[in-house]
Amino acid sequence: MINIVLFGPPGSGKGTQAQNLIETFNLKQISTGDLFRFNIKNNTDLGQLAKSYIDDGQLVPDQVTIDMLISEVQKPTTAAGFIFDGFPRTAHQTLALEQIVKTELNAEIDLCLSLIVEDEILVERLLKRGETSGRTDDSNEEVIRNRIKEYYSKTAEVAELYKTQGKYVEINGVGEIAEIAEALFQEVRKIKTAQD
Ligand code: AMP
Fold it and tell me: Is residue 196 assigned to a domain?
């Protein structure tokens, strides 16, 4: 089993690259952002709670997010592992994930792949995505900048935790999609080879 955290600021290409990794390595993607949007669309209690935070570009409280993730990990799957996309985003979530993967899957996080893209490119990409995605948090520059700020203030500490475990790898997130995918694949292959 292989479990990967796909990491990087909003607009760094996590969703796109998760898709490539899923297909190549038979992984299941869990995107907490997608799960929140699904709940908002279906007007669930969870969706109503999450909406105000998301519309503001703030993080949804840890416990709500962690509980949602646990129920997703518990669903039966034939995948060979997981890609966690957009989770963890705080130190608390990082420690929770370690516990969840251990308890629910009897496994561990093997790798944190971090996509590096400079801020101005992120803003540009997100505004462009907002023209077609229908995501309210993509269409307002102030909210976008808030999300990036949240990333640096709360989420960057996640990288530090994976660094101390020797599991953190940075990948340049600017360039051809296929080229970036190849760089990610190489890192995953290293893990697989070490497991075999
Ligand atoms: P994303 O699609 O990953 O950019 O997430 C969109 C929004 O959902 C974020 O700006 C947060 O408000 C919320 N969100 C997604 N994942 C998390 C998380 N792990 N912890 C807290 N909030 C989250």
Answer: no
